[in-house]
Design a protein that fits this description.
mainly beta; four-stranded antiparallel beta sheet; 16 strands
């Protein structure tokens, strides 16, 4: 009797183990093939396979902006939504490849990138993207990020090894001053305090980028 009971326990344990493994496999299969929208996400903008969104900014739950980087041509789109992304409108086509945008408020915004693979561009709008002015400067081949903490104070980052660097303006892009040559990405919480990244190193500034300390 004892031997029979032990064998039955072994068989029962084996059945339970198989049942557990089958359940686990079915769980992963159902997770892998479930509708991706059920997790609370839905597609609001479908690319035309030539213009892919590379940067996006929302000022509140309704008003948002995005820029596309074109594939196979040199024309980027500026997209705008006023209903939380339900509808997106192309309000501007730029003769350039754009990488980044920054909107410190609803009306004033900046985008950056390069044109004709040889000249960096920075565009500015003061009416929520309806009209744009080219405020590019210098001889940098491209700008990879633009970041403004208010309508007048902001930075652009150029990635070129010879002419690259972090440039700052305090007058809305009328003039620019180079601050550091190594950064590839920055983020600020106010006009004075920010962080930058370059070559696997993190830097911090507390004086608007005049000095950067490796942390």
């Amino acid at each position: 009797m004892e031997s029979k009971f032990a064998g039955g326990a072994s068989v029962s344990a084996g059945i339970n183990k198989v049942f557990f493994l089958v359940t686990l496999v079915l769980f992963f299969i159902s997770f892998r093939f479930q509708d991706k929208n059920t997790a609370g996400w839905e597609i609001q903008y479908a690319s035309d396979n030539t213009h892919f969104i590379v940067d996006i900014k929302f000022l509140d739950t309704l008003n948002g902006y995005a820029v596309t980087d074109p594939t196979g041509n040199d024309s980027s789109y500026f997209l705008k939504t006023t209903n939380g992304g339900v509808n997106w409108n192309i309000t501007q086509k730029f003769p350039a490849r754009l990488y980044s945008l920054s909107f410190p408020n609803t009306n004033t915004g900046y985008v950056c990138g390069y044109r004709n693979s040889a000249w960096a561009v920075v565009y500015k709008t003061t009416n929520a993207g309806i009209n744009w002015t080219d405020i590019g400067f210098g001889t940098n081949p491209d700008y990879v990020q633009v970041y403004f903490t208010n309508p007048d104070t902001g930075w652009v980052i150029a990635s070129d090894a010879d002419f690259g660097g972090t440039y700052r303006t305090t007058n809305g892009g009328i003039s620019w001053t180079q601050q550091m040559s190594a950064l590839t990405q920055i983020s600020f919480i106010n006009a004075n305090t920010g962080w930058g990244f370059a070559s696997n190193k993190l830097y911090r500034t507390t004086n608007s980028g005049q000095n950067w300390v490796n942390i």
